[in-house]
Amino acid sequence: MSSVFGKPRAGGGQQSAPLEVNLAILGRRGAGKSEDTYSTEETVDQQPVHLRVMDTADLDTPRNCERYLNWAHAFLVVYSVDSRQSFEGSSSYLELLALHAKETQRNYPALLLGNKLDMAQYSNSRNLDGKQQA
Ligand SMILES: Nc1nc2c(ncn2[C@@H]2O[C@H](COP(=O)(O)OP(=O)(O)OP(=O)(O)O)[C@@H](O)[C@H]2O)c(=O)[nH]1
Which residues on neighbouring strands pair with residue 26, listed in sequence order? Predict the structure, then answer.
């Protein structure tokens, strides 16, 4: 038995069928989580991987989390670099993932990603709705 992202998969040695990897994208609304591709075939370390992506639709805080916590093998927490509100909102997702790891006794890969790099010059100055902060 070998494993990918901490969850066991059947078989070992040469793999012909792709690994199945589920990735949940978390973060406050407006961070830029949505992507056009939700399922893709990739090759990682000469191993075919079938990657499924779930774009979660929480508003400002984690909600109804069980559906993605139980589904995902890995997590991407996204914030928008031009919004302090968005960055600070990431902490509730990171805390949720830390709690999940503690409860399940597993360490799932989790990455904090700053999006909208093209907006970095406006850092700290906007709310997620695009309005200037006081
Ligand atoms: N400038 C800039 N805008 C971006 C970028 N990525 C996404 N956006 C814009 O940010 C806005 C929000 O993007 P979404 O992908 O809808 O954000 P979301 O986090 O999925 O938000 P919800 O769907 O409300 O959960 C949209 O207008 C996007 O076009 C980026 O890299 N740069």
Answer: 77
What is the mean predicted confidence (pLDDT) over 66-88? 93
Domain extent listing, the chain: 17-128
Q: In terms of CATH architecture, what is 17-128? A: 3-Layer(aba) Sandwich (3.40)
Distance between CA 58 and CA 77 in Å, rounded? 12
Query: Looking at residues 85-95, what average pLDDT do you find?
Result: 93
* Residue 30 Cβ < 6 Å to ligand 1: yes
CB neighbours of 57 closer than 8 A, spacing ≥ 6? 29
Ligand 1 atom index nearest CA of 57:
25
Nearest atom within ligand 1 for CA of residue 115: 31
**110: CA distance to ligand 1 center in Å?**
20
Alpha carbon distance 58, 45 (integer Å): 33
Question: Is the C-beta atom of 89 inside 6 A of ligand 1?
Answer: no
Query: Taking the model in full, what pTM does it have?
Result: 0.79
- Do the beta carbons of residue 32 and residue 26 sit within 8 Å? no
Q: 23 C-alpha to center of ligand 1: Å? A: 18
